[in-house]
Design brief:
Elements lengths: L7 E4 L1 H4 L5 H13 L9 E3 L26 H10 L3 E7 L15 H10 L4 E5 L9 H13 L6 E5 L6 H4 L7 E3 L8 H12 L10 E3 L20 H13 L4 E3 L8 H7 L2 H7 L7 E4 L2 H6 L4 E7 L5 E7 L5 E6 L11 E7 L5 E3 L4 E6 L4 E10 L6
Parallel strand pairs: 1-2, 1-8, 2-3, 3-4, 4-5, 5-6, 6-7
Antiparallel strand pairs: 9-10, 10-11, 11-16, 12-15, 13-14, 13-16
Alpha-D-galactopyranose binds next to loops.
């Protein structure tokens, strides 16, 4: 299997944490369908940590907690599949999961088989409690090999948070996605940290092995397991825009059973999702160069990605505390004055169409604000009459 696009879905952790159970999983799956989120592409329903009993069963097998999952995992997976959705689960490569439940260390082949039998389509694989004498790359390769031979196509979603230079070795495990950030909480500083962390990791993102910037906090509004403070809608919009521009997997973390119309329309934004799922999977570049910004530059930047149709995704981002005018020069996009080209810009949020003027793309952005455009290269001087 080669994952040509970043996967999309919903994950239980951000909202439910340890209080995950069959009821909330099924209700959330139903809400994905009834809200239209499934049709927008969010199809994986992932049960995160805290689903198992603390001890394995008599044959060494993982056992779902019968109080939380009274019908077991296979029937639950069948119900999720019957809704046209896909079924995701969670384990860990260390001595136990992050919340202290059994992990798959040295049980990779048995557990991969169990997940396959339960009809699992996606496995999130965490990095807590790695034994001192074992390397992360070996542990991920072990599960990657077991999944590749389990008789079922299971997306392998590595989750080592970019630790121990994950970017340099995760490709050897066959992981389809890899967490390139620490956990994202529901506040602006956390989102900002995740975006800045990406800058040095963007060159490692590629088709078949996508950088996963963690679950989305859009729509959490300070509630739930990671709801630390909440964000403004401007900040949620910038968060979602950055994840799409950087081509991260998109896993909703809010309570989709009680989602606001505002959050729903952002998460369903076709133009942004189209950029996230663009099949070209070209590398992102930043202007000014991301690394410079990371060190001591202004907290105002453009991020750009070539798209499959020959156009560009252009994002302007204002991470300062003031309203600012963000500018991107066509010359820096490869459209010097002698190219005799300019760009037609479609604003992904509003659908408004505009054009580059005097060789620049610019927008006035509020603090923590952004604008993402789909830019079509068209004939004409950079300088408009
Ligand atoms: C880690 C992961 C989170 C979540 C928790 C569960 O912190 O990064 O995404 O899975 O473990 O315990």
């Amino acid at each position: 299997m080669v994952l040509n696009r970043p996967p999309m879905g919903w994950n239980s952790w951000n909202t439910f944490g340890k209080d995950v159970n069959e009821k909330v999983i099924l209700e959330s799956a139903e809400a994905l369908v009834s809200s239209g989120l499934a049709d927008a592409g969010y199809r994986y329903v992932v049960i995160d940590d805290c689903w198992a009993l603390r001890e394995r069963g008599p044959h060494g097998e993982l056992v779902p907690d019968p109080k939380k999952f009274p019908h077991g995992m296979k029937p639950l997976g069948e119900r999720i599949h019957a809704m046209g959705l896909k079924f995701g689960m969670y384990s860990c490569c260390g001595l136990m999961t992050c919340a202290g439940y059994p992990s798959s260390l040295d049980r990779e082949w048995q557990d991969a088989q169990t997940f396959a039998e339960w009809g699992v389509d996606y496995l999130k694989y965490d990095y807590c409690f790695r034994p001192q004498n074992r390397k992360g790359e070996e542990l991920y390769r072990a599960m990657g090999l077991a999944l590749a031979n389990c008789g079922r196509e299971i997306v392998f979603a590595a989750c080592s948070w970019g630790a121990d230079e994950t970017e340099k070795w995760i490709g050897t495990s066959g992981a389809d996605t890899w967490r390139s950030t620490a956990d994202v909480f529901d506040n602006w500083r956390s989102i900002e940290r995740a975006v800045v962390k990406q800058f040095s990791l963007l060159p490692y993102r590629k088709k078949g092995c996508f950088n996963d910037m963690d679950m989305l906090v859009v729509g959490m509004n300070g509630k739930g397991n990671v709801g630390l403070g909440g964000c403004t809608f401007t900040e949620y919009t910038t968060h979602f825009s950055a994840w799409c521009l950087f081509q991260s997997p998109l896993f909703i973390g809010c309570d989709v059973r009680n989602i606001s119309d505002e959050a729903l329309s952002l998460l369903k934004n076709e133009a942004l999702i189209g950029i996230d799922r663009d099949e070209k999977c070209a590398q992102v570049y930043c202007l000014p160069a991301c690394m410079a910004w990371e060190e001591d530059g202004d907290r105002l930047f453009a991020a750009v990605r070539l798209l499959a149709d020959g156009g560009l995704a252009v994002g302007l981002f204002n991470f300062t505390e003031q309203e600012r005018n963000a500018v991107c020069l066509l010359n820096d996009l490869g459209l010097g004055v002698r190219s005799c080209k300019r760009v037609q810009l479609t604003d992904c949020l509003t659908g408004a169409v505009s054009f580059s003027r005097n060789g620049v793309i610019e927008a006035v952005l509020p603090p923590h604000g952004s604008a993402v455009y789909r830019a079509k290269i068209i004939s004409g001087q950079g300088i408009l009459p």
